[in-house]
Amino acid sequence: xxxxxxxxxxxxxxxxxxxxxxxxxxxxxxxxxxxxxxxxxxxxxxxxxxxxxxxxxxxxxxxxxxxxxxxxxxxxxxxxxxxxxxxxxxxxxxxxxxxxxxxxxxxxxxxxxxxxxx
Length: 118
Hints:
Number of helices: 4
Helix content: 40-55%
Structural class: mainly alpha
Shape: globular
Radius of gyration: 23 Å
Order of helices and strands: HHHH
Number of strands: 0
Number of domains: 1
């Protein structure tokens, strides 16, 4: 891991609600990302909620990234954005069927089939 001036959290960070088996075991995070979240997640959450004030330029940049995610440049910032998207964003739901319902008449029109009246 690269050297960071970000403060370590007062306690280890876990999200037992969304990731009860751990970040890495969820399949969404690498081991390195899990380590970043555990070590720095408490500080990042405190900064995000306004409970902590930034102490250095890295933490000030982190607050700018929260306002504009396209400014993320460090692995730490990208990992937090990934975490917030997965933990707070909408769950993706994949189906085997299409979302558009079609009637039998629509299906026949699609294939240029003409029904003749007797």
